[in-house]
Design goal:
heterodimer; A: 275 residues; TIM Barrel; eight-stranded parallel β-sheet; 10 helices; B: 317 residues; alpha/beta; two-stranded antiparallel ribbon
């Protein structure tokens, strides 16, 4: 599992305050704790509060990468913010650009921009199965958009091993959204058949349980289901121990890790090394 | 539109380790980035190495075909080691301390230390120093053997799930390499590696050993597990990325097909050819699984397997 650790995000109040005060301590601590917990990438998201997002992401990137060796996942829907982050990011350790849809009304070439930035830095991208019409509500449209993304990426010189497809999880308690988790699993099955090697499959897991009463349980149950369908990455709270236990167990049951009596410990000691 | 490459690629690799060195000869094993004969010559890593067995005491149960090959040196481990290097062409020796086993002479630590010192003096190839398999005796004797070989970068064997603390601690203190053993069980193999690693022993200094099965006696189990261990290493499992060793000599010569005399089985063919062939076929079959060190005994079998290795991996790799 390529675990992308979600906590360095300006939507969390501690990080929001750290960005506002330029106080490195909370960011450094989160970078270290998440790395120890097995993060393969640290997500870096300035949130919406920062007055100057480009300035904020530069500061976050420099602060996080100075604290740990873990590669970063630059998280913004705005190419200019990603670009600013890349200017100061040590991409020699790898970098993931998170995220772009296939296209959008305001920016039809947005995928091209992310691919070009990733190609220039030797990094990877997360592409959402989403287009000008928004998030598809069924399996077929998700799969069709994924096919277009894979094709376009290959035309632009990005091989599928550097492409993470995110089939987009919506909160399960949003009206009409309860059929989406099953749709996503069906879409994953088909997306993995589209190329060899297949693209990675990732997801912003915590979104699934927004506003529910059993967040961790819902997250980890669905992640186990997704892993059984070939999902090999997720943006998760790596500090959620039961969740990481489920990842270790699901991967072991899928024969991706050899069982040993200490398999939970083995997973943690190896996680992060697998990127 | 560029097509992505369709060949099998692996993200991990088998650790590369160098035994010996310093003022002595060295041998480097491991390093594979693909399965044996997986396509890329440069990705297959170091060629496998034969470790020629030298026993600390004269073997009591060797069949004549095998014992005759070393008849002049069976009483003297140093002379045996010299012969293995100079006549048989060994670049790695495995000194097996069968003679300390309570049922096989029960020799003491002084004996084992003397054997170690003499062999180290007699030859300058790297050594494997392998206990008798009796936990209590190994715990009493092998730490002293380790100490006697301090600084020589030897490979010490073996630690198991139930008995790993003593030898791990002493191998760590003396900077040796260590063999983790499992009874034809990949899950236990991983567990032993974790236990040893928990004591602070570097994973990069471990070699894995699955109790070997000879041709006709479980070879396919050993093969499957060794192959799966190799694939786990190639898939990036750092806890399974160690080079592997197997014990062909001992196992092949336990088989009745290898050791039974011409008088007892005249229809089975000439025993002088049959035994070495049994050992040869066992070794060559197991080499396909991705094993890095093969312990062997009969000079004829060793020569055949060495020729096979040279032919496929090249003699200079």
């Amino acid at each position: 599992m390529i675990a992308i650790a979600e906590r360095i995000n300006g939507q969390f109040l501690d990080v929001k305050a750290a960005i506002a005060d330029k106080d490195p301590a909370p960011v450094v601590e989160l970078a270290k704790k998440q790395t120890e917990a097995g993060a393969a990438y640290l997500d870096i998201n300035v949130g919406t509060a920062a007055a100057d997002q480009q300035d904020a992401i530069k500061w976050l990137v420099e602060t996080a990468q100075g604290a740990v060796e873990t590669p970063l996942c630059l998280d913004s829907q705005k190419p200019d913010v990603i670009k600013a982050g890349l200017q100061v990011c040590d991409t020699s350790r790898g970098v993931l650009l998170n995220s772009t849809p296939l296209d959008k009304k305001s920016d039809p070439e947005v995928l091209d921009k992310y691919v070009e930035m990733a190609n220039a830095s030797g990094g990877s991208i997360i592409a959402l199965t989403m287009n000008v019409e928004g998030v598809p509500q069924n399996v077929d449209n998700r799969v069709a958009i994924a096919a277009e993304i894979i094709t376009k990426c290959m035309e632009l010189g990005m091989t599928p091993d550097r492409l993470f497809i995110d089939p987009i999880i919506l909160p399960v308690n949003v009206p009409g959204a309860q059929e989406q988790p099953d749709n996503i699993l069906a879409a994953i099955d088909q997306i993995l058949l589209m190329s060899d090697p297949p693209p990675h499959i990732t997801m912003g897991l915590s979104n699934l349980s927004q506003g529910t009463t059993k967040r961790s349980l819902i997250n980890r149950t669905f992640l186990a289901m997704a892993i059984s369908h070939g999902c090999d990455s997720a943006i998760i709270d790596v500090l959620d121990e039961p969740l990481v236990d489920v990842v270790a167990t699901a991967e072991m049951l899928m024969n991706k890790q050899i069982y040993s009596d200490s398999f939970l410990k083995a997973y943690r000691s190896m996680a992060g090394g697998r990127r | 539109m560029p097509l992505p490459p369709v060949k099998e690629t692996y993200s991990g690799q088998v650790n590369e380790i160098t035994l010996g060195g310093g003022d002595r000869k060295s041998v480097t094993i491991g390093g594979a980035k693909t399965i044996p004969h997986g396509g890329d010559r440069e990705a297959t890593g170091r060629r496998p190495v034969i470790a020629v067995d030298v026993l600390d005491a004269p073997p009591e149960d060797w069949p004549p075909v095998l014992a005759d090959a070393y008849a002049d040196v069976l009483q003297d481990p140093a002379a045996w080691a010299t012969k293995a290097v100079e006549t048989v062409g060994a670049e790695l020796l495995c000194v097996k301390f069968d003679g300390i086993h309570p049922d096989k002479g029960d020799r003491d630590a002084d004996h084992a230390v003397q054997v170690t010192r003499k062999v180290l003096e007699a030859v300058d190839v790297p050594l494997i120093l392998w206990g008798c398999g009796n936990d209590d005796k190994d715990n009493a004797v092998m730490p002293k053997v380790s100490e006697a070989a301090k600084g020589r970068n030897v490979l010490l064997g073996t630690v198991t799930e139930d008995n790993y603390k003593n030898l791990t601690a002493i191998a760590l203190a003396d900077s040796h390499f260590l063999i983790s053993q499992a009874p034809l069980d990949i899950n236990i193999a991983k567990q032993v590696n974790i236990l040893v690693s928990d004591m602070g022993f570097p994973l990069e200094r471990l070699v894995m050993f699955q109790t070997t099965g000879a041709l006709g006696y479980g070879l396919e189990y050993a093969y499957s597990i060794q192959e799966r261990e190799c694939l786990a290493a190639l898939a990036g499992d750092k806890l399974m990325a160690m080079p592997q060793i197997c014990d062909v000599g001992y196992e092949a010569w336990r088989a009745k097909e290898a050791k039974i005399s011409d008088e007892d089985a005249p229809e089975w063919g000439d025993a002088a050819r049959r035994g070495p062939l049994w050992e040869t076929v066992t070794a060559i079959a197991l080499l396909q699984s991705g094993v890095d060190i093969v312990r062997m005994r009969h000079p004829k079998a060793i020569a055949r397997v060495q020729a096979y290795i040279n032919g496929l991996w090249g003699s200079d790799a």
